[in-house]
Amino acid sequence: MSNGTMVKTEIQNIKLRFGIIGNSEGLNRAIDIAMQVAPTDLSVLVTGESGVGKESFPKIIHQFSGRKHGPYIAVNCGAIPEGTIDSELFGHEKGAFTGAISDRNGYFAEANGGTIFLDEVGELPLSTQARLLRVLESGEYIKVGSSKVQKTDVRIVAATNVNFSEAIADGRFREDLYYRLNTVPIKVPALRERTDDIGLLFRKFASDFAEKYRMPAIQLTEDAKRLLVSYSWPGNIRQLKNITEQISIIETNRDITADILRNYLPARQESRLPALFGGKASGSGKGFENEREILYQVLFDMRRDVTDLKKLVHEIMEERAAGTPATPRPSAQSYQYLHSPMSLSGEVLPDNSLSLVHPIATDHPSVQPVKLSSEDSDEQAAEYVEENLSLDEVEKDMIRKALERHHGKRKNAAADLKISERTLYRKIKEYGLD
């Protein structure tokens, strides 16, 4: 038996053992790398979009390593609040903080001699990243509230869907930690890159749900198969599984046509994204995952512009109070500051008035052109803007409604808002919603 045939046989056995379905070249390559790196103690970074099945690869690496009889601990870094993540990972001493009624070992102590899987490692705060770097370099760490150095012997496998190039450039992730984690990279391909596997996965899920719910398995017509393969699957395997389960439960007809399937596929995001003002996204080099991220970006841009507006109004008021003619300075993107006797409607304004015109003022009911005379104070101008564009209140209201919808369950609310639980926890504290 040739080496190539042996490798293919081993890969097939791994797929059967770990429930991995598919025959794409990218998937086989990822499994092959996991098999080769498993006997070593090198750190591994598994990358790929959300829902592609990254969690299977740390298990493969652990089971085919010399640590397979040691502990295996999986930690979702994005689900642990920022204030407690150091304690969870490294442990704490009694009295280190309020509620620390006894000593506690962290995950690195519990995983000694085994493997620790750090999922969503890109969500770690910078202070924790520094601690993790020390563990990778020397195997040493210090418990929260202690001064004693502890030692641990763990193999670290990390996974993320974060674009590290952008995170490093933005200062959200340490470059030295990235190179330590990325000793051996494994990229798991997205489902849209595995078109030949989509039909296999659908049939497997349909069969599993038919057995689970004791009903005949659903089947796709030819036009439905073409639609299934042509869809982009932004949620990858997780989305395909959820949609297969929905159809299996809801549809009484077991033969699924393209029209039926289309009812369960969300509209393609490219066709329904709102436009951004000023072409902000086109030159930033950053993409947006969904409409909610664009909304947040727009809100944050508006907040920055409101701050600039306040500063400009304050400067103009000071100049006029000093008797110096004011020359408004226009903003290149979002606002136009017009020191002119004519308003947008053609109304003649007094010479000593300032017309501030927002480019969306005529389309947005809550934002209208503002006329400020030299007798108005900058406090009044700031108050007007705050009342109309209170972005903190918008964010607070969104979080409160999400918590109400999910009956206070923060994990579900965070998923609804498309933010991590740690971020939601911080926002709840910030706005006093707990």
What is the alpha-carbon Rg in Å?
28 Å
Which class do the helix and strand fractions yield? alpha/beta
Overall number of strands: 12
* Overall 3D form: globular
Straight-line N-to-C gap: 64 Å
How helical, in percent, are the residues?
A: 40-55%
The side-by-side strand order for the widest beta sheet comes to: 2-3-6-1-7
The average pLDDT score comes to 81
> How many H/I helical runs?
18
Largest pleated sheet? 5 strands, parallel
Low-confidence stretches: 269-289, 328-377, 384-389
Order of helices and strands: HHEHEHHEHEEEHHEHEHHEHHHEEEHHHH
Share of residues in strands: 5-15%
Notes on the structure:
There is one protein chain. By secondary structure, this protein is α/β, with parallel strands linked by helices. Helices cover 47% and strands 11% of the residues. It has 18 helices and twelve strands. A five-stranded parallel beta sheet has the order 2-3-6-1-7. Strand 4 and strand 5 form a beta hairpin. Helix 9 (195-213) crosses helix 11 (236-250), helix 16 packs across helix 17 (410-417) and helix 17 (410-417) packs across helix 18 (421-431). It starts with a helix and ends with a helix.
